[in-house]
Amino acid sequence: MISGIFGKTKPINFIIILGFLFLFYWFVHFVLYDSHMEPEQLVLQFLVLGVLLFSVFIVDFIAKRNQITASNSFAILYYALLIVVYSEILLDNNAVFCSFFLLLAIRRLISLKSLKNIKLKVFDATIWILIASLFYDWAIIYLILVYIAIYFYEPKNIKNWLVPLTGIFVFGIILVCILIISDNLDFLKNHYKLSFRIDIIDYWMNSTKLAIFAIITIIVTALAFVKMGKLGLGKIITMRIIAISLALGLIVTFLKTNNETYPVLIAFFPGAIFLTKYLELIKKATFREIVLIVSIVTPFLILITEMIIK
After folding, report:
1. Tens-place pLDDT, residues 110-169
2. What is the pTM of this model?
3. Separation CA 57–CA 282 (nearest Å)
4. Total domains present in the chain
5. DSSP per-residue codes, 54-82
6. Which domain holds residue 12?
7. What span, in angstroms and rounded, lies between the C-alpha atoms of 16 and 31?
8. CA dist., res. 209 & res. 136, Å (int)
9. Residue 111 and residue 121 in contact, taking contact as beta carbons nearer than 8 Å
């Protein structure tokens, strides 16, 4: 039954996912964490919510446009379910914005497979990553993904390797000008510290959810690659880029996570993609339905358990 609904691309699927996330967002703020907001704060939260909901469309667009998944809505379903498991991320506005801009960057990098407008796409991806780094300084390591994508698609053209440097220069000039006008040059020194506290290790060791997410996504990714061996080279390269983005997302999550910062959202897109690919590779319809039911029930059981404990 569930696979009958989300196993196809239908407008109702977006209505279900977006409607649920809209309600869940306010539930987390006002019920689960009992937040109190001033009118101006509410305006900001509506903006954050809008970006989060638009991110769902980007996830679906990347998956469908590049034929990463079959014609279904499982990717956005898993994306929403992961948010349920890690409801605390909705308290971190930086997580939502950083994830959004990284999605835009990944979209451009994956589209390199067409081998058209490569320099423009590399430039765009670089800019989006640098904007994302304004919210989490460690997100800047996603520039590694830009160079990896160049290596995969057109490594022999030397100009391609110089484009990210051009993007960094342009972004730097614009940012410095804005900071000079706003008299806030200290932002660069205070923001881009690229440091982490030792208690992050303790946090991860005590955070069962983060550890389980990392383990499950790594296992599912490995299984998906084993079963995708017969796919064309183009799709394999795309999946490699997504796998590397997952690895980078987990690294940033490890480096930035503390009691007030929850960057794991940036790893949800690749995580949702590989969970979807694994589900698609299940041949038996009955077993697939069971996996779907467990996937949906488990996040809400975790949520209810956390509410009881609190």
Report:
1. 999 988 999 999 999 999 999 999 999 999 999 999 999 999 999 999 999 999 999 999
2. 0.94
3. 25
4. 1
5. HHHHHHHHHHHHTTSS-SSSHHHHHHHHH
6. 2-309
7. 21
8. 21
9. yes
